[in-house]
UniProtKB/TrEMBL annotation:
Gene3D superfamilies: P-loop containing nucleotide triphosphate hydrolases (3.40.50.300), Tetratricopeptide repeat domain (1.25.40.10). Transmembrane segments: none annotated. The lineage of its organism: Bacteria, Pseudomonadati, Pseudomonadota, Gammaproteobacteria, Cellvibrionales. SMART domains: TPR. Keywords: TPR repeat, Transferase. It comes from Luminiphilus syltensis NOR5-1B. The keyword Transferase applies. TPR repeats lie at residues 212-245, 246-279. GO terms for molecular function: protein-tyrosine sulfotransferase activity. This is Sulfotransferase.
Length: 663
């Protein structure tokens, strides 16, 4: 639980200003804590009570907010802020007519010179106009607002099934109730059913074309689906409908970023910050785009602006550390240590700050302290992750059982004849970005990034199926046409990432699992295994805080066992389809760059080009954690880095002993 300092001599004004500062920075929990501590001393103060109500609404603690606003209105019925707060709560719960009445009462109570407050109320009433249109008529059908509010309360309590039943009843009663459709779509997205969410949201905006929130959520659903053109169209509609909303510009920028429109994304994130100068997401997105384009100094300055706007912005510190080549100033390290001392309510910022400090202390060669922070980071992150090592082992066993040498030999010519993809696979932090940068420096090759498309295709095939009816076991009975269709789907799905360059790279490391599938579906695709010394590979993954995925990497035993399974499967691919996969050892690339580059290009059937040796001069967008490292000449400082942590890695070394003995 966060700890908020509360000296006994704090005045009411100081309490109020402190809570307001937290609110401006988006820190609802600490703002709430300041208000609650303050009300113990200044019981019933309307200002602190009003701020506490804002905190509760912002965190969707709607039952407490309901009781608080009723009490505040009973004690201060002529306080315009009390009426406005009640309207805010009614808006969040979907009771738009009551919200309109509350805002009108607030307007009647405004002092004559309160022009800024009047303008804010006008914006809120304009939003209600949009929401009213979203329900398909001038007035929400009788009872609908109560049902929507009840669905919100049930979701907040974790009773999602009951909330969904209410929303479905609402849609049966009024098929054009766009807000009910939107909330159903939100629940579908929470269960990763993005296609269903997009379908529901499409119905919502067709029923109410000016429903800005519906268009906003539709853009996000299309982003989740990887349909970036559709996301762009939807997010452009949001900006047209609601240009004064920072979130509208952020979702447009997110869409532009995914569509590789990096300069346009920079402009859109900047527009969002013009509207909301403390918007953490806009700062993060802007800095990431600058980093992707190699504009490191501007990215660093943007992250530091974000921290100045919100000193508790853990993501900004983490993003700075994740530049790998960056070093913090001493006062920044002190600020992060202070954040840890204050404590966190949420494990995500806790993990981010610990990871940033771990990377910083590693750069300062204080390895014991660095390991302490890496360990603390992963303990925080593991509380948010679910990793099933048994499921991974079964998946590897199934791949080996299905893709026998006989099956792979018989099927090597049945898939789609397309030579455009190069897959770089392996474990994260094993040199895959370096190999991608080398290849993308060739005139015939373009780098994309870690594409989710192959995994998404397989996930869609397996959704709702039991293990024996899922890939790979079900593939035993596939016809040549089915294998070819997998290749066709992948090539069509990845077209959005490509220009007219004939060859492209997909460097999603997890595709090592699907090398057999690729041999059957895309037999002329190239598969490169980016490999590193087992200890460096495992510890590199362990100390990397990933934005999402790679849930095996947050425990040393899990990552060691995962590495053994990875190597078992790669050994199987080598035996079952000799020569189909090229192993590139990171240490060999560092030791003799030219020889390994020529070997790599020979495998890919590409002529040698000098630019591949000068890869650090190649100007291209790089999104991964190694983006700044691959813009430098080859270096060897990461080789055997694990030895600096040897005293902490005895357990990992023991797990990997069968492989280490043979290295």
């Amino acid at each position: 639980m966060a700890r908020v300092s509360s000296p006994a001599g704090s005045t009411l004004k100081e309490r109020f200003q402190s809570a307001e500062t937290y609110l401006r920075n988006g820190d609802w929990r600490n703002a709430q804590a300041v208000c609650e501590v303050g009300l113990q001393t200044f019981s019933g103060d309307p200002g602190l009570t009003w701020l506490l109500g804002r905190c509760l609404i912002g965190q969707k603690k709607l039952q407490r907010a309901d009781a608080l606003t009723r009490d505040l209105l009973s004690m201060h019925p002529d306080l315009y802020r009390a009426q406005e707060l009640r309207g805010d709560l009614e808006t969040v719960t979907g009771d738009f007519e009551s919200a309109r009445a509350s805002y009108n009462r607030a307007r009647d109570l405004l002092p004559a010179d309160a022009t800024a407050a009047a303008e804010q109320l006008s914006k809120k009433q304009a939003y209600l106009d949009q929401q009213q249109e979203a329900t398909g008529g001038a007035l929400m059908p009788e009872g609908d607002s109560d049902d929507l509010a009840e669905a919100e309360r049930l979701k907040a309590r974790g009773a999602g099934g009951e909330a969904e039943a209410i929303l479905r009843r609402l849609v049966r009663r009024n098929p054009d109730n766009a807000e009910a459709l939107r909330q159903l779509a939100t629940m579908a997205s929470e269960h990763f059913q993005y296609a269903d969410a997009a379908a529901l949201l499409t119905r919502a905006v067709e029923a109410s074309p000016r429903f800005a929130r519906g268009w906003l959520d539709l853009a996000r659903a299309y982003l989740d689906l990887g349909d970036y053109n559709a996301a762009l169209e939807s997010s452009e509609r949001v900006v047209a409908l609601y240009p004064e909303a920072a979130d509208a510009h952020v979702v447009l920028a997110n869409s532009q970023s995914q569509a590789n429109l990096h300069e346009e994304a920079i402009n859109s994130y900047s527009n969002a910050l013009d509207i909301a100068p403390h918007h953490d997401g806009a700062f993060s997105g802007l800095a990431h785009q600058l980093k992707t384009l190699g504009r490191q100094d501007e990215a660093i300055a943007t992250h530091r602006r974000a921290i100045a706007a919100n000193p508790k912005n853990a993501e900004a510190y983490w993003n700075l550390a994740n530049l790998k080549t960056f070093r913090f100033e001493d006062e920044e390290v002190t600020a992060m240590e202070q954040l840890i001392a204050q404590g966190f309510d949420d494990p995500e910022p806790e993990a981010q700050i610990h990871n940033a400090l771990g990377l910083e202390y590693e750069g300062r060669k204080d390895y014991d302290r660095a390991f302490h922070h890496f360990q603390a980071c992963n303990e925080a992150r593991r509380s948010q992750e679910r990793y099933d090592p048994v499921a991974t082992e079964l998946q590897v066993q199934d791949m080996i059982e299905v893709f026998t040498p006989q099956v792979l030999a018989a099927g090597k010519d049945i898939g789609l004849d397309d030579r455009s993809p190069i897959f770089i696979v392996g474990l994260p932090r094993s040199g895959s970005t370096l190999l991608e940068q080398i290849l993308a420096s060739h005139s015939q090759v373009e780098g994309t990034h870690e594409l989710p498309d192959l995994g998404r295709i397989i996930h869609e095939m397996n959704r709702g199926r039991q293990r024996d009816a899922s890939f790979p076991l079900v593939a035993r009975n596939w016809s040549p046409e089915q294998w070819r269709s997998i290749g066709e789907r992948y090539i069509a799905s990845t077209q959005k990432y490509r220009s007219d360059t004939p060859i492209f790279i997909d460097k999603n490391p997890n595709n090592f699992m699907y090398a057999g599938l690729l041999r059957m579906a895309l037999p002329n695709a190239k598969v490169i295994d980016a490999r590193r010394h087992p200890m460096d590979s495992c510890f590199g993954a362990f100390k990397q805080l990933f934005a999402s995925g790679q849930s095996f990497s947050y425990d040393l035993l899990d990552v060691g066992e995962y590495y053994l399974l990875y190597r078992e499967l790669m050994d199987h691919w080598d035996e079952a389809m000799p020569g189909a996969v090229l192993t590139m050892q990171y240490e060999a690339v560092v030791a003799d760059l030219e020889q390994q580059v020529r070997r790599l290009l020979d495998y890919c059937e590409l002529p040698f080009e000098e630019a591949c040796l000068e890869f650090h001069n190649t100007q291209r967008a790089v999104r991964t954690a190694s983006s700044e490292q691959v813009r430098q000449p080859i270096y060897s400082s990461s080789v055997n880095l694990w030895k600096n942590y040897a005293t902490h890695l005895e357990g990992l070394k023991s797990t990997l002993e069968p492989l280490l003995a043979a290295e």
